[in-house]
Amino acid sequence: MSEHINVIGGGLAGCEAAWQIARRGIKVRLFDMKPRTFSPAHSNTDLCELVCSNSLKGAGLDNACGLLKEEMRRMDSLVISCADRTRVPAGGALAVDRDAFAALVTESLRGAPNIEIISQTVEALPSGVTVIATGPLTYGGMNDVITALTGGEGLHFYDAAAPVIAADSINTEKTYLAARYDKGTPDYINCPMDREEYDDFWEALVSAQRTPIHENIDVPNVFEGCMPVEIMAARGRDTLRFGPLKPKGLRDPRTGLTPWAVLQLRRDNTAGTLYNMVGFQTNLKFGEQKRVFSMIPGLENADFVRYGVMHRNTYIDSPRLLNPDYSLRSRPEVFFAGQITGVEGYVESAASGLLAGINAAARLTGREPLVLPPTTCAGALTAYISDPEVRNFQPMNANFGIIQHEILKIRNKKERYERISANALEALANCTKNI
Questions:
Q1: Could you tell me the residue ranges of all domains in the chain?
Q2: 139 φ/ψ angles, rounded to the nearest 5 degrees
Q3: What are the helix and strand counts (H, E) for the chain?
Q4: What's the pLDDT at 221?
Q5: For domain 4-157+313-431, which CATH number applies: 1.10.357.10, 3.50.50.60, 1.20.140.10, 1.20.1280.260?
Q6: Could you give the CA distance from residue 258 to residue 181 in angstroms, rounded to a whole number?
Q7: For residue 193, what are the β-bridge partners?
Q8: What is d(CA 171, CA 395) in angstroms, rounded to the nearest whole number?
Q9: How far apart are CA 48 and CA 249, in angstroms?
Q10: Distances (CA, A) of 420 to 41, 68, 204, 378, 412
Q11: CB 59 within 8 A of CB 415
C-alpha cells in the first residue's frame, strides 16, 4: 500500500477530500487538469471554481442545506470555511464572491502541508487508495476508467447556468431592493412585472430559439432542481409565477402592492458590480437571451457579462455501486465523491468529498469508516445514494424529506425544521468525537 492517497479532480468535492486527508497527517496527490486543460464550462485557473450560481443556498437551520453546512463546519470543512470568509450579502442565503472563494480555497490547499497539486489530466487509475472526484463533466481517459470501474455507461442529465449582469446597466428606476418576507437584509434587486408585461415576456420566452444540445434531442433529461427557465415556462403560463418569478413576500415599497411577477437579482461578487439572475438557468441562444430577458422591467439596457449555458452532467448508478463510506463495492480502495455520485448541489458535493476524504484516510490507516446516521443531513444523503433499494435513481439535493426523525407535532414549519436540525447536530456530535 502506498503512503499517499490520490485525489483526482480539483472541484468542491476533490478539494474538500484532499483537505480532510491532509489534516489527518497523510500525503495527498491532488490532480486537476486546469490550467493546462479546461472543460467547456470552466474558465478560472484556480481550483474549486463555481460554474453555475454563486449561492450555496439557505444559511439558517430551518433550511436543510443550512443544516448540512453547519454539520460540515463542525467537521472542519475547508469549503464552508472559505465560503464564510468570502460571502456577499444575499439575505437568508450564503452566497460568495466566486473568484475570491476559488482563490482562497486554492491558496489554502497550496499552503497546507502534505498536499501536492499536480496539474495534468489523468488517463489511467493510479495505484493505491484513490478518490475520484472528477465531476459531472468527466471525459477522455478518466471517463473510460470510470466506465470500466462501474461496468458500463454512466447515467446523465442536463444542467444549466444563469446569466450574470453588470450592476451599472440595471435601470434602478424600475426596480427595488428587498428580501422575501423581509428575511435578512434587503440585498436582492427586484424587477417587478405587471400582468401584461409578464404575459408578453412568457410568450417571447416559450417561442425563443434554444442552443442545440445533441443530435435529435429537443427537450433533454433535465434535473428538476436546476431546470432551464424556458423548459419550466413551457409547462404552463403560470409556472414561473410559482417558481423563480414568484412574487409572494416581495411587496413593492413604492406602491405597497405585490407585483404579478418578480425577477430577483442576487449579488455575484463582493464589490457588487455583478448580479446573477436568480433561477434563470437557460439554454437559449445568446442573442435570444439578450432579446427576451431585456423585456424584463429594469433590464432594458442590461449588459450581459456572461450568458447562460447548458451542459451534460454524468453521474454513476451509486445505489448499485457504492458502499455507505463512498467506496466502490467491487474495488474498496477506490472512492467516489461529488456530483458524479448523484448528490446535486455545491454543498452536497463538498459534503460527499468531506466524507470520502475521511474514509479514504481511514482505509489507508486501517481505521473504521465514518458512516453518519441518517438522522443527520450528510448521513441521509449518503444513505440515499448508497441504498440498493432506490430505483430510477436521480440526483438528490439536501432536504428534510430524506432525514430520518421522530414525528414532531409542531405545526409551525420553521420551528419543526429547527428541531430536526438540533437533533441532527446532537447526533453528529455523538458520532464524530474521535475523527
A1: 4-157+313-431, 164-308
A2: -150, 180
A3: 12, 16
A4: 61
A5: 3.50.50.60
A6: 11
A7: 261
A8: 38
A9: 34
A10: 37, 12, 43, 13, 13
A11: no
Q: Find cell 470520502 and name the residue.
A: 356
Q: Which residues lie closer than 8 Å to 415 by C-beta, 6 or more apart?
A: none
CB distance 63 to 417 below 8 Å:
yes
pLDDT tops 70 at residue 139 = no
Question: ∠ CA 163-185-60 to the nearest 5 degrees?
Answer: 85
Considering the domain delimited by 164-308, tell me its CATH architecture. Answer: Beta Barrel (2.40)
pLDDT of residue 308: 86
Q: Is the pLDDT of residue 313 over 80?
A: no
What radius of gyration do the chain's Cα atoms show?
22
Cell numbers that stand for 216 in this block: 435529435
pLDDT tens, residue by residue, 263-274: 999 988 788 888
Q: Is the peptide bond before 35 cis (omega within 30 degrees of 0)?
A: yes
Secondary structure (DSSP) of 271-286: TS-EEEETT----B-H
* Backbone phi, psi, residue 250, to 5°: -125, 55
As a whole number, mean pLDDT of residues 356-372 equals: 97
Range in 58-62, 82-86, 151-155, 349-353 the model is least confident about: 151-155
**What single-letter amino acid sits at 268?**
D
Instruction: Using pLDDT thresholds of 50, 70 and 90, give the confidence band for residue 410.
Output: confident
- Distance from the Cα of residue 272 to its chain's centroid: 22
DSSP-assigned letters across all residues of 230-252: HHHHTT-TTTGGGTTT--TT--B
**DSSP strands (E only) in 268-385:** 274-277, 304-306, 310-315, 334-336
Tell me how far apart the terminal alpha carbons of the chain are, to the nearest angstrom.
22
Bridge-partner residues for 274, per DSSP? 166
Taking the C-alpha atoms of residue 399 and residue 131, their distance in angstroms, rounded to an integer, is 26
Could you tell me if 407 and 336 are in contact, meaning their C-beta atoms sit under 8 angstroms apart? no
Residue 213 CA to residue 223 CA, distance in Å, equals 15
Residue 365 contacts by C-beta under 8 Å, 6 or more apart in sequence?
Answer: 24, 26
What integer is the mean pLDDT of 169-184?
90
Q: SS3 of 30, please?
A: strand
Instruction: Check: CB of residue 105 under 8 Å from CB of residue 46.
Output: yes
Is there a shared CATH topology between the 4-157+313-431 domain and the 164-308 domain? no
Pairing assessment for the beta strands 55-58 and 93-96 based on DSSP bridges: antiparallel
Confirm if 150 and 316 have CB atoms less than 8 A apart: yes
